What does this fold into?
Amino acid sequence: MVGGFLAYRWFAKSPVAVRLTIFGLIFGGIVAWGVAIRNVSALAKTNAPALPGQTVQQEVTYSGLIVDAGTLAGIRGAKVILSLAGATPGYTDSNGRYSIDAPPSSKVIRVRVYATNYDTYDELLPPGANNQFADIRLDVTRAVQGQDAGGNGKPIAAPTPSKGKRESSQSRGLSGTILDVVTDLPIRGATVTLTIDQEEPLHRETESTGVYVFNKVPANAEGVLRVTAPGYQPYDRRISAQTRPELRTIKLRRTQQ
It folds into this structure.
């Protein structure tokens, strides 16, 4: 107490400039201390390990382009939904481009697209380089095929049928993923053969994602889909409107060793 009393008397008799300097040093020290505590707290949160059951995951940006299948013009205002946890829907800009931030995925992703006056798009797609999807082409709904996509009454040129073949009134892609029935991992190098009516069979070979894609398969087409892969039992399935949903995910069993 004696020391404090003497310090107070000395401070009271000191010149004003000295007292202001002392106040400045004390205030500056308090501010610096507060900033240091805040920075240490932020750093601790950044480097803190995940709690049991908690997953810390960086997000990536998925992007792509939505266009009109007939004119290849970008579609504005289309709603894009990715089947990834934590991914919020994205909307296309005036050029038809969209971007969605979501956790990274090494598997194929279900992509759904909704746009006014267009058929709904719902397919499994593998993200490409830089998490960019291939361009998605939407067909105008049959109710507005006599108008442009904006409903302005402009006629759309009818597609020219190829010689010797009758075009179906509506064509859609046929796609899916080939997986191991036990591990649920994609199978690379599987051969997928599509035979429709009396036409020549179409063949696809899966990459590391296990995805196969056949473009412009008539919606009412009937035929046979066959899948073969080294070390696995063959898979055969008739194609119809009823069985198409089953072909999105095909699981193969290994042959008996």
Notes: The mean pLDDT is 76. The chain has two helices and 14 strands. The domain at 57-157 is CATH 2.60.40.1120 (Immunoglobulin-like).
